[in-house]
Every structure is written in structure tokens, then in C-alpha cells.
Design goal:
Low-confidence stretches of chain A: none
Distance between the termini of chain A: 37 Å
Structural class of chain B: mainly beta
Oligomer: heterodimer
Largest sheet of chain A: 7 strands, mixed
Strand content of chain A: over 45%
Number of strands of chain B: 10
Largest sheet of chain B: 5 strands, antiparallel
Order of helices and strands of chain A: EEEEEEEEEEE
Mean pLDDT of chain B: 93
Radius of gyration of chain B: 13 Å
Helix content of chain B: under 10%
Number of helices of chain A: 0
Strand content of chain B: over 45%
Low-confidence stretches of chain B: none
Structural class of chain A: mainly beta
Largest interface: A-B, 25 and 24 residues
Mean pLDDT of chain A: 92
């Protein structure tokens, strides 16, 4: 099946710094990428949808200036957490939808810890 | 508002028994429902997808049903094994895919 590679798998950063998370579709072109956040023992919460060549669509309550999303090519989408704070510590996961009526393909996830 | 829900946070069963997990949706009619497995610290892994015009779908020890009258999907694991212990998520297949909260299944030997 299709593969989405997410990097890094974990990162620890200091408060106030920025962290970039990358998601690459390895063997297919992803015009759309979903970004999720997951807190411990909770489900995936959709943060935003990135679209190649256009602005991302953010879910209500998600600060677009804090979570910068770039989808510069058909194989790469990035999420940058700017001016990170400890409350941003979470598990971030990307996914690329398959064709209509098929499954989505998920990255391995990134564990972000802000200290 | 449109919701997709898994009301059981956790399910504990004995090895060899059948695990049954429930997913309900309200205020809309998804064309598809999907089930994923998620292990701690990992991204979800796709298991099965069922369309609204399909009543049942099987894959090895897994079975999924879709009841549009009850607005519900059931996910069954037969002859469960400790290795089946994980969190299972249901999701719809809209453009902005929504997930249920997940059910944490523990299969005890």
C-alpha cells in the first residue's frame, strides 16, 4: 500500500522555539494532507487540511499563525509549531487520503515535548 | 452537529473470545465507515472499510457490519489473542475524516 513517511518521530524543544514536522508521500502524490493532534488516551483531533498549492484549511479553534502548514509539493507537507509552549506537547500525525472509497494512509506520528 | 462516537472507552476480554466494538454516528449519513488499529505511540493502521450499501465485510478474523437503520457499525474480532490488544478507531470517509474516540481493547491470556 501507499506509504506516508513522517519525520521526526520524536522531538524535544525549549519553550519559545519552533519545530517543523514533515510528512512525505513516498510512492504516490498527495494533493491533500490531514494533520491531527492526539493527547494521551484521546482520539485524533483534526487540526487542519493542507492542499498543494493553496492555503490550508484550519479547524475551528486551531490558531493558523501558531501551526503553520505548508504543502509546497505533491509529496511534501509540513507543520511548523511556532513559539512552542508546554501545552503544545502532544502526538502529531499526518495522513493522506486515498481515492474516494478507500482508506487513508497515516504517518508514524511525531511525539512533541516542549520543556 | 454531526458526530461519530465510540461509547466504550475500554473493553477487556479473555483470549479466544469474540470482541465486539461499537461505532455510532448521528445527524448525517456517511457513505463509508472505516476501522483502524492504533498501538501506543504509533499512527493508525487501516483494517477494514465498509460502504453504506454493504451489510457486512470480513477479513480473516475481523468482521465489520454497517446498519444504516441503527446508524451503527460493529467491529468483531473472533478468536481474540493478546496480540489484538490495542486501541481501535472508527472513522468516516468524508473529506475531513472524523474519528471516534477509540476503544482500548485488552485481551487477557
Amino acid at each position: 500500500g501507499a506509504v506516508v513517511s513522517q519525520h521526526p518521530s520524536w522531538v524535544i524543544c525549549k519553550s519559545g522555539t519552533s519545530v517543523k514536522i514533515e510528512c512525505r508521500s513516498l510512492d504516490f502524490q498527495a494533493t491533500t494532507m490531514f494533520w491531527y493532534r492526539q493527547f494521551p488516551k484521546q482520539s485524533l483531533m483534526l487540526m487542519a487540511t493542507s492542499n498543494e498549492g493553496s492555503k490550508a484549511t484550519y479547524e475551528q479553534g486551531v490558531e493558523k499563525d501558531k501551526f503553520l502548514i505548508n504543502h509546497a509539493s505533491l509529496t511534501l507537507s509540513t507543520l511548523t509549531v511556532t513559539s512552542a509552549h508546554p501545552e503544545d506537547s502532544s502526538f502529531y500525525i499526518c495522513s493522506a487520503p486515498g481515492q474516494v472509497g478507500t482508506e487513508a494512509f497515516f504517518g508514524q506520528g511525531t511525539r512533541l515535548t516542549v520543556v | 452537529s454531526q458526530k461519530i462516537e465510540q461509547n466504550s472507552e475500554a473493553l477487556n476480554i479473555q483470549e479466544g473470545k469474540t470482541a465486539t466494538l461499537t461505532c455510532n454516528y448521528t445527524n448525517y449519513s456517511p457513505a463509508y465507515l472505516q476501522w483502524y488499529r492504533q498501538d501506543p505511540g504509533r499512527g493508525p493502521v487501516f483494517l477494514l472499510l465498509i460502504r453504506e450499501n454493504e451489510k457486512e465485510k470480513r477479513k480473516e478474523r475481523l468482521k465489520v457490519t454497517f446498519d444504516t437503520t441503527l446508524k451503527q457499525s460493529l467491529f468483531h474480532i473472533t478468536a481474540s489473542q493478546p496480540a489484538d490488544s490495542a486501541t481501535y478507531l472508527c472513522a468516516d470517509n468524508n473529506n475531513d475524516m472524523r474519528f471516534g474516540a477509540g476503544t482500548r481493547l485488552t485481551v487477557k491470556p
